[in-house]
Amino acid sequence: MNKEMIKLNDVKRSFGEKSVLKGVKLKVNKGETFLLIGRSGAGKTVLLKTILGLLRPDSGTIFIDGQEITQLTKAKLEKIRLKFGLVFQNSALFDFLTVWENVSFFFKQHTKMSRREMRKKVTQTLALVGLSGIEDAYPYELSGGMRKRVAIARAIIYDPKIIIYDEPTTGIDPIAVDKIVSLIKDLHNRLSITSVVVTHDLETGLKIADRIAFLLGGEIIFEGKSQDVKNTTDKRLLQFIQGASGGPIKEMEV
Ligand SMILES: Nc1ncnc2c1ncn2[C@@H]1O[C@H](COP(=O)(O)OP(=O)(O)OP(=O)(O)O)[C@@H](O)[C@H]1O
Ligand SMILES: [Mg+2]
User: Which of 5, 8, 21, 136 is the most exposed place for a label (fewest CB within 10 A)?
Assistant: First the structure.
């Protein structure tokens, strides 16, 4: 059996003159929680979008669950995308739709469930993320932490093989962060899903991740187990973890 769920080889992507990914090599194993760290503007979101097939790389190869996706047509890419659940950087709920409409929004397009069955499925999924009785609420009626959980429910409703979290804990208080962390761990254990997490909150990230990659200057300059991070001698990684302004990473370098 193929051990890797995601595998990138020498992936490059530029926007005009600006080269963002300069040859990314990366492996995410099946069932692991993988943390991607890097400075603001390093290209983490660009990398996630490339993995999702939302952005095409200029060169290099990407394998998802053993299948090369780099040359696939749009229609085939959309099928692959069903393997992914997405939790975007800012929850990205639709303000004009209720919670149950939000959670079922993408799922609806891929199933023939009746409205009643769908509603039941939404209630079950909300229960998985620790929410109940809010099906008919609108996003503005919820706290930031609850909105994050609704976004997670929307991501897991169609049993994805991989879940991608881009900044799942930004903008919520420490207790809410802790709840989201427990939820990510719990979902991971219960659904044995492969998770990729991007966060600036290293403490949180290290709590959930099995392995970590550090994106700097368009390349992965460190890939290893979470516990290796604490013992690292890599001066750039040390500087990043310590948040020091002085060190080998230049002010403008991302
Ligand atoms: N569609 C696009 N067109 C042009 N440039 C883009 C596009 N998307 C991203 N970029 C550029 O790529 C670089 C990396 O952006 P990206 O959003 O991936 O950073 P990030 O690591 O996710 O940062 P943050 O931690 O702040 O979310 C930025 O300089 C950004 O301006
Ligand atoms: Mg980003």
Answer: 136
